[in-house]
Amino acid sequence: MAVTIKSEREIELMREAGKILADVHNQLGELIAPGITTLEIDRKGEELIRKAGCIPSFKGYEGYPASICVSVNDEVVHGIPSKKHRLFEGDIVSLDAGVIYKDYQSDAARTYGVGKISPESQKLIDVTKESFFRGIEFARAGNHLHDISVAIQKHVESNGFSVVRDLVGHGIGKDMHEEPQIPNYKPIGRGIRLCAGMTLAIEPMVNAGGYEIWILEDDWTVVTRDGSNSAHYENTILVTDGDPEILSLI
Ligand code: MF3
Ligand code: CO
Description:
Elements: H1 8-31, H2 38-51, E1 55-56, E2 68-72, E3 75-77, E4 92-101, E5 104-113, H3 119-136, H4 145-158, E6 162-163, E7 169-171, E8 178-182, E9 199-202, E10 205-207, E11 213-215, E12 222-224, E13 230-232, E14 235-238, E15 245-246
Antiparallel strand pairs: 1-4, 2-4, 3-12, 4-5, 6-10, 7-8, 7-9, 9-14, 10-13, 11-12, 14-15
Helix pairs in contact: 1-2, 3-4
The chain binds 2-amino-4-trifluoromethylsulfanyl-butyric acid and cobalt (II) ion.
């Protein structure tokens, strides 16, 4: 399927989905503290999503068993919540969540420190988030898709970290994953030309060490190969004729 341009009505629904998701993330962020289990975060997330009249898009997606991906330390993405996994002081934890509101999707991720964390971990979290904002500066009609990718990669690598290659951002709308794929590093070519009305999930995944990853035996959890920490930051955005609009942030 080709890249879709959303109508004003579709954009309105995606704005609503995004606001709900942003609010869910803000509330989950308040829960992050030593002692909470990753399953408790998932349960609360699902409850908030359903209370807001949305469906958690991750639950059952290709068999994924939870509503919130909770990925701790060297887990890059797609960590599976568990009642056996408690957060400890000094951990970093990425929460990735998706909602469907009246058939339209929003997808966003945040990374938090648990209690007091090391300066290196804080830098990893900050650089990951900053790289998203560097990237979306280029999410403007007339630019090329990979302008976003290059800006993300430059910011990450100039800070001594690396961007995961095997996972990418994506278009989003009625489906969670639409075209185009959005790498966080420079691929071959410039990518498609961006147009107003495109909605994109831009999601840098940044490793403190090398960019290589493994997938664990559960077939979901993505971890860094070298055991270094990893952070993730994602928002669903709208390309306009002017400044990009971040739909999943309030
Ligand atoms: N947020 C992820 C993405 O952008 C999707 C999570 S995978 C799922 O692709 F299985 F949990 F849904
Ligand atoms: Co995504």
